[in-house]
Amino acid sequence: MHQILSLILLLVGILPCGLAQAPIVLKCEPPNWWTGMKMNRIQLMVYGEYLHDVAATSSSPQIKVLRTHAAANPSYVFIDIAIPPSATPGSYELTLHSPQGTTAFRFSLLKRAMSQREHQGFDCSDVMYLITPDRFANGDTTNDNAPGMSDSLKRSDPYGRHGGDLQGIVNKLSYLKDLGVTTLWLNPLVENNMPRTSYHGYAATDLYKIDPRFGTDKLYASLVSEAHNLGLKVIMDHVNNHIGIHHPWIHDLPMADWLNGTIENHQKAFHSKPELDDIHSDSLTKQRATNGWFSDRMPDLNQLNPFVARYLTQNTIWWIEFSGIDGIREDTYPYISPQFREEWCKTVLDEYPRFNIVGEVWIQDPAFLAPYQRGSYLPRRIKPELPCVTDFGLYDAFMKTFADSAGKIENVFSCIAKDFLFPNPDNLLIFLDNHDIRRIMFAVNGDVMRFKLALLTLLTMRGIPQILYGTEIGMKGGPDHGTLRADFPGGFPHDERDAFTEEGRTQSENALFVFTRQLLHIRKTHKQLQCGTLIHFRPSDETYLYFRIFQNERLMIVINHNKEKRTIPLSPYLHQLGHATRLRELLTGNEVSLLDKNEISLEGMTGGVYEILSATN
Q1: Left if phi > 0, otherwise alpha if psi is -120 to 50, otherwise beta: which for 383?
Q2: Fewest Cβ atoms nearer than 10 Å: which of 102, 216, 420, 499?
């Protein structure tokens, strides 16, 4: 009897322990998928407890479990599933089995939208408008601070959160449409639960969730839809390279090699990128560029781990399909593992053939920049798949020309003359500034004439122009990230004026707004300025002349980079002017007759966009 009682007590003691070790599912990523996708083999990352020694099964033929991968960390299990082409939308049950018990969770397959207004891509017919969401407009003050988010609202701090959000952007879509831009690039919006400088969005702590201080996943998809209704496109700023130090993974890694290095022992990023293509470069130097942490607060993800690679690729596809975005700007492109990044591009573009991806490649020398573009003529061990590249070479030429009072327009000509290095110069993103580099108005030290001439050159040049929010009113910003990403006046409660309106702008701001809007609308209505062939001539006496030609329709652009007025003889260009009898300058409407003399005059630091007219038009 005593032995039986002892056995019963022993079983009673064991059972609760055994039951407590049944699998517990807390989260599954991706949270859902879609039917009818080319990518129909998905790897689920399941978070929870007691997930060691489990096997997964599906209760429905709509989802087939291919394999279960145990992780060294019992908080994770990876499940490979296949979604048959015949699968129908619905919520399906997956079950985890272990010796200690079973746990079921549901996984949804959704119907694809398949709208022609989604996933349109972007090209040289577009002008991109870059927005730092926290600094643009606050449309919902109720989310200025969010429960569980450690960085709270503090507008007085240039590096604090200021309250801009998705609703603020939605509220200004009609303003942006009227301005004349076609595509919105929004700095990262996913959760950044960092104690400081979380506003910029580049240190993610949840890759499947919009930061609640910006809004919700649903609101993001709604913004994209409303933009599409107005004929605007939306670009997602995406980061494969790194995450934030406060991501839950950091203290609970799925695998030991999930990151390159550890908090205590990691390489510093090597920011000199030409070494990556230098055939004489040291191998450890190259490794530091891709394995080094961008900063101590931004751990570097190891994309050579196949589970990391699949997670990131699926995350990208999920956001594209969920939101309907039209393209991606990929952050710190050269820092990403070359094997992964090119396969990632290929996979995304295979799923969305109209899509476009621009990679941030911060290299000023075109010879080192060109190898990153798909179809590059230059030899590479791994074939490049990136369609669009940030043209930091032309940016550098712009700065040497317009930001330097002694600069020469020859810099721009010489840079454009190297376009033979690129397989597609029209698919380069061109810019005078962005969220990482000082604003053009700051660079020219407030010189409005230089500012306007630089903007005219940008918006008439080959490539895809990008302007930073506030450029249209001449926002100057400051020398550091906090001040260059200044608030747009009128976008926030209690602002003294509203620069989104004519009444709220100063006289000088209105003049710049009208000039910018006019340039944008000229570009929008003239195919020559979008994707037309560019023919240029070596500058003479600091004047630079080039033609943009589309289907035999020509525009002539003339830049006078002198402080004084210049008369430019047109006799060297008569073969390009054809049977022209007069020129009409599109900004002013003024006409110049070519019957009496072949020359035009331009005031100092001005330019002209000339329509070429014959006697019959």
Answers
A1: beta
A2: 420
What average pLDDT does the segment 4-17 reach? 39
Domain CATH code at residue 44: 2.60.40.10
343 within 8 A of 395, measured Cβ to Cβ = no
Q: Which residues pair with 96 in a beta bridge?
A: 56, 103
Same domain, 205 and 272: yes
Tell me the DSSP string of 518-551. HHHHHHHT-HHHHH-EEEE---BTTEEEEEEEET
- SS3 per-residue string spanning 32-99: EEECCCCCCEEEEEEEEECCCCCEEEECCCCCEEEEEEECCCCCEEEEEEECCCCCCCEEEEEEEEEC
Structure tokens at 320: 């594209």
Residue 92 and residue 171 in one domain: no
Nearest to 311 by CA among 339, 274, 340, 332: 340
Which residue type sits at 104? A
Average pLDDT along the chain:
94
Q: How many CB atoms lie within 10 A of CB 4?
A: 8
**Nearest-CA neighbor of 204 among 298, 332, 340?**
298
Domain that holds residue 319: 128-530
Q: Would 121 be classed as within a structural domain?
A: no
pLDDT bucket at 11, cuts 50 / 70 / 90: very low
Do both 317 and 331 map to the same domain?
Answer: yes
Report the SS3 class of residue 437: strand
Q: Are residues 343 and 329 both part of a single domain?
A: yes
How many CA atoms lie less than 13 Å away from 592 in the CB half-sphere? 23
Chain position carrying tokens 């007025």: 565
State whether 549 and 603 are in the same domain: yes
**Same domain? 520 vs 566:** no
**Positive/negative CA dihedral, 293, 297, 298, 302:** positive
The answer to whether residue 78 is domain-embedded is yes
Domain tally, the chain: 3
> For 185-223, how does the pLDDT look when each residue is reduced to its tens digit (9 = 90+)?
999 999 999 999 999 999 999 999 999 999 999 999 999
Residue 116 falls within a domain, yes or no?
no
Predicted model pTM: 0.95
pLDDT in tens, 110-139: 999 988 899 999 999 999 999 999 999 999
3-state secondary structure of 2: helix
Of residues 3 and 440, more confidently modeled = 440
Tell me whether strands 356-359 and 388-390 are parallel, antiparallel or unpaired. Answer: parallel
- CA 121 to each of CA 76, 208, 354, 591: distance values in angstroms, whole numbers, following the listed order: 36, 22, 5, 38
- Please give the positions annotated as active site: 331, 360
Cβ neighbourhood burial of 34 (10 Å; 0-12, 13-18, 19+): buried
Per DSSP bridges, beta strands 582-585 and 606-613 are antiparallel
| H-assigned helices in 132-196 | 166-171, 173-179
Clarify whether residues 158 and 250 are in a common domain: yes
Q: Which amino acid is at 383?
A: K
478, 505, 530: which is the final residue of a domain?
A: 530
